[in-house]
Amino acid sequence: MVDVKKILLVAACALVDRDGRILLTERPEGKSMAGYWEFPGGKVEEGETPEETLIRELREELDIETETACLAPIAFASHSYEDFHLLMPLFVCRKWKGIPRGAEGQSLSWVRADRLSDYKLPPADIPLAAQLRDML
Ligand SMILES: Nc1nc2c([nH]c(=O)n2[C@H]2C[C@H](O)[C@@H](COP(=O)(O)OP(=O)(O)OP(=O)(O)O)O2)c(=O)[nH]1
């Protein structure tokens, strides 16, 4: 039988600070892939654009405000996990209001692009780390 997996659309964002460092957040205990370091973001809900998802998730997860004009799409991940196929556009954001904090208790780390691979990244993110290193 053909293995048909559901496509899960997740929007993710590389927040880049003035020194060119990228924000990674640690997935907390109790979630799938707990302990992995990821780009902030989340599932695109019904009726949302990926940009709207990110504006909402950045507010909920990091307590910062940004807008569509500050979100530039630069890459995407397409990766099969056991239960679903992840399709994840990655945006870069260099402009936001507020100071990012782990509003849901998650740990944060600002990381130089050439050090992203030092972190335990979800398998889908590994090619993205290499692309960011080359692009930023
Ligand atoms: N936000 C984000 N999610 C990622 C990344 N890489 C990656 O494989 N994912 C996966 C992890 C999750 O399966 C899904 C994002 O879902 P989510 O963060 O909104 O959902 P969640 O943890 O509340 O849900 P769940 O997986 O525990 O059901 O995408 C990434 O860099 N950022």
From TrEMBL:
Entry EC no(s): 3.6.1.55
Sequence ranges assigned to domain Nudix hydrolase in this UniProt record: 6-134
Catalysed reactions, semicolon-separated: 8-oxo-dGTP + H2O = 8-oxo-dGMP + diphosphate + H(+); 8-oxo-GTP + H2O = 8-oxo-GMP + diphosphate + H(+)
SUPFAM superfamilies: Nudix (SSF55811)
Lineage summary: Bacteria, Pseudomonadati, Pseudomonadota, Alphaproteobacteria, Parvularculales
PROSITE patterns recorded: NUDIX, NUDIX_BOX
Protein name: 8-oxo-dGTP diphosphatase
Organism this protein belongs to: Aquisalinus luteolus
Keywords: DNA damage, DNA repair, DNA replication, Hydrolase, Magnesium, Metal-binding, Mutator protein
UniProt similarity note: Belongs to the Nudix hydrolase family.
